[in-house]
Amino acid sequence: MGALRCTWEEVESLGWFRRPCRWVMFVLAAIGMLVVVVTATPLVKWWSRMLAGHWTDPRGEVLIVLGGGAMDGEVLALDSYWRCIYASLAWKEGTFRKIVVSGEGVAPIMRDFLVAQGVPAAAVVVENSSSSTRENALAAKALLAGDAGTKVLLTSDFHMLRAHAAFTKAGLKVLPRPFPDGIKRATKLSRRWDVFMDLAGETGKLAYYWAKGWI
Fold first, then answer.
1. What gap in Å lies between CA 61 and CA 55, rounded to an integer?
2. How confident is the model over 199-203, as a mean pLDDT?
3. What is the pTM of this model?
C-alpha cells in the first residue's frame, strides 16, 4: 500500500496530471450550472420570445406554413404537427383563401393532415422541393409570383426570426405569425432541456445565415 501511495504521489507531483484534472472539474461544474440554469430559470422562455420577434396574429389571404420534420416519411414529427394545428386554427378564422405548405417530403403529409382538419383540398398548395428555410423562401416567392394577396408566414416561435428574415431577403413580403412552440414546451421542467437544444441550434443557424448573407 505504501509503495502504491508513493507511486501516486510521484505521478501527482508531475505538472501534467493536475492541469487536466482541474479542467475536467471545471467542465463538469459548468455543465451542472448550465443544467440548473436551463431547468430552474425562465431562460428558455425568454430566449424563445426573443427569437419569435414582434408577436402578433395577423390575418391575410395566403398562409405560408413551413414544414419541420417527418417520421419515416409518413407521419408528421411534433414540430410539423403543431404547425399544422395552428394553421388549421388560422384557416377557421375565415380570412385565408389559400394555404401553402412548404418542405421536401413533409409538405404532402401536412396537406393530408390539413384536409383531415377540414381545410378544403383545393385550398392547399404543396411546395415539395425545398429542404431549408432559405429554399422555403425562394420556392414560395416563385410559387406566389403574381399573387397580390397579403401573405402571412406561420412557423414555430424560435424559428420565426430567421424565417421572416430569409423571406424578406428573398424579396417576398410576409407578415410573421409565430405560435408558442418552445414557449409552451418550456412550461414543463422535463422539456426545458429539449427546448434549450432547439434554441441553441437555431441560434447557430441564425449566425450561419447571417454569415452567408441569406438574412
1. 19
2. 93
3. 0.82
